[in-house]
Amino acid sequence: MMDDISISIKEVVLDYPLLKEGKRFIKERLTKRFKAKNNMFRALDGLSLDVKKGDVVGLIGPNGAGKSTLLRMIAGILPPDEGEIKTRGRVGLLAGVGAGMQGNLSGIENIELSGSIYGMNKQEISDSMDQIVEFSGVGDFIYQPVRTYSSGMKARLGFSISAHIKPDILLIDEVFAVGDGEFGKKSKEKISELINGGATVVMVSHNMVLIKELCNRVYYMEQGKIKSDSDVESALDKYSSMGK
Amino acid sequence: MAIRVHRGGGKGAPSLFSGPGLVFRNVWEHSTLTRHMVKKDIKLAYHGTFLGYLWTLLEPLLLTLILYALFVILRGTSDEYLPLKVMLGILFYGCFSKTMAMCTNALIANSSLINQVYFPKEIFHVSIAGYQLYRLVMSLLVIIPMMIWYQIMPTIYLLLLIPAILGISMLGIGFGMIASIVQVRIRDVSQLVNVLLRAGFFISGVFYGAEHVPEKWLHIHLLNPIAVYIEVSRVAVLGDMGVIGFNHILYALVISLLFMLIGMGIFKSFESRMVKYL
Fold first, then answer.
1. Radius of gyration of chain A measured on its C-alpha atoms
2. Which one of A17, A85, A109 has the shortest CB-CB distance to B276?
3. What is the ipTM of this complex?
4. What secondary structure letter does DSSP report for B15?
């Protein structure tokens, strides 16, 4: 792996099983056992991609193109069925923020828990505690159980935690819709700050204005493949002609 | 900077033999996470109840009362230590069955988390076992007033509680890891585990001592490591080896260690392939 490459993806294939509820029962299982191979959905189809250190890559394309799946594979959550993925450094995924939050624990306790889930050690958590609390803007509610939070507050706290894990590779899956207008702006600034800090970024978004503003390379994905060159214009062209 | 590689198919998965080593290393490297998970379980266990921690003691005490009454009504007994023995049986079996049952559902119950953050999934199992271990130790404190009541002097045998406690956790975590992997594909497993745990309750000598087991069945009874651990806990408190020998203890520990290592091996080589089924 070359030194300036942050993420190297080689010919990656991923099949998702299609679970039809009926098949879960024993009769169908026994009779249709051997046809099981057909019940796969190919989410990624021999995709290759190299991302240089410090690049900000945008992934665009229709729903179900495999963008989020690709992010989760880079994050190491899903192993590929074929091919190989290499990453250099700590990987952080911002997606569906608020995963693993416990309603009955206070905000502080949730920061400790989620922070450690994201791989921060005790020192890192206590160092960034104040920043996380302040950035989330939930104020004195931080001592209250998270179940008493409004959904916006919960999302803000979640985003705030994951934005402070200081990853080398930051993967972003549509999290800009977080919180009210004010917080939306703040979170965008935070992302820019992480980008400027030298993090390699891969982001999935349907917000073309944002993609144009932040990314230096953009890929258009469809049916588990990359269907465009790496330059921003050609990918956006593809996107705008989508479905025509 | 650390390079992480994920390869396709089974090629990337660790072998059965490297599994245990990986588990120990991951738990060590993620010790903060493990601690926080255990702490979370402790905090949430009796959240919102009036009696809180007291339930850790109250639950086994009430169960002991019921089972003791039942035993006396059905069999009649001259064994004055029976309540103490039943109590120990309930505490140890409870530790095993709760570890096992919670581990079986560990992956399913945390699927949304697993799908959003990458971290070693054995942390779930280890922290469950850690929490149940904590509960067992805390509830064993109830033994102290009981020993005073019976005027039992503590002996060196009391140290036998340590292998018994560790052994029963190893067994629970080993079985639990295997069950949790299979559970992802075949959701019937947790139902089966429930039935087996219920059956185990009756055959593991929870509410009767090994001396109540007919002679010809005794050696079969003591093939069950859980039964051995329960019996060992009674030996430890009463200071009398009874029908148990050190060979039984050694046997149970070896079996438990073996199952734990096998469980870890199986778990590590299948865990990441299971994610897309969650």
1. 20
2. A17
3. 0.82
4. P
